[in-house]
Hints:
Helix content: over 70%
Mean pLDDT: 82
Strand content: under 5%
Number of domains: 1
Amino acid sequence: xxxxxxxxxxxxxxxxxxxxxxxxxxxxxxxxxIAGRFGAANLLDSYLMAFVLIGMPVSIMVxxxxxxxxxxLVQVEGSVAANxxxxxxxxxxxxxxxxxxxxxxxxxxxxxQTIFPAGVxxxxxxxxxxxxxxxxxxxxLNGCNLLLYGALQARRSFxxxxxxxxxxxxxxxxxxxxxPEMALRPLLVGTVLGSALxxxxxxxxxxxxxxxFAGSLKESGILSKAVLALxxxxxxxxxxxxxxxxxxxxxxxxxxxxxxxxxxxxxxAALNSLLVTAIGIVVLPHFAQMLHxxxxxxxxxxxxxxxxxxxxxxxxxxxCGLVFANLVIVLLxxxxxxxxxxxxxxxxxxxxxxxxLPFLLVAMVAMRILAAMGxxxxxxxxxALQLVVGTACAYALGKELGAAGVALGTSIGTMxxxxxxVWVAGKFLSDQSAKAEI
Length: 438
């Protein structure tokens, strides 16, 4: 039973990763084009800061809602109740995002001015605020896309999650080609257009399986699921703050530091998406189904076997990445405005980010089992501790090692969080397995 589950999970994850190769190639191609045009400069720093900041409410509220909705949709799969639950989730997400937007837009200038009261030499903070306004359509579209992808995961339709995101970098590439000027506008227009095309594609697929917007939020059943999501939102806030804190620290280190952090994280992020995201997307419906049937012992064995496999695979990938980091960065980015010195600095960042990959893989398995068990408060506390430790380490190491130190600090926080998640999830499962045998 467990061995067949592992084969099914790894098989689906492998298919997902293979299908994701084209979108990841397009994303890297987009980054190569951006590196050639902008290098590591203030203009790109402003866009990257705005992109992360405007996405914070979505990452906090919608990701948490998606996490609790997937197991709920699995339990009522193929029914009218599932369609109404999905419709209610989309309505609730849009309402929550609309209510949060004015407060967040007003808070962004205050946050930056509080952290950098005297500004930062050579920086243009107003361009960050202006970019946030331009990205408001992306803010809503991205929120809808996350829930729609979640609905497809619950239906065990994984290929759209792998392929459709390729529309986003393709739109950005088109925007950069049509608007060759050295300005923010091509990046902002391409971001909004890409998210809009992505929404059209994924919503069309979801409609085939059914979605209902009839009735109130209470009648759809989404409010009870939203209550479960509240603790996760706090945890998501902690997780979402990690890239924001990284960029804030890097922003104070000098021109181009945010860009170097971004370039250095491109390959690790692509690997995370290919491996970590694949495991997370595929494994949650399986855990949800097993726990719904109270198959505690099988779930416990699956957790142990799968955790060991992904950690070992992650170690192998990291070993190769550490050896070839310089070559990869040079081949991808060293052209146009991107210099050799910047390549060396980005390669150091890449190595530091890669260290967390095996731990991210295992942590994803642990988080999915905890989410399926409804242990959302536990995830929140671990995320909070990880944020505190990671921030402290990133700040201290960033002062000594620059952008690479910021990345290393984040990896240290991830390692600690992984250890706690693995221990807690293992304890819950072993306890339940032992009770079931009595």
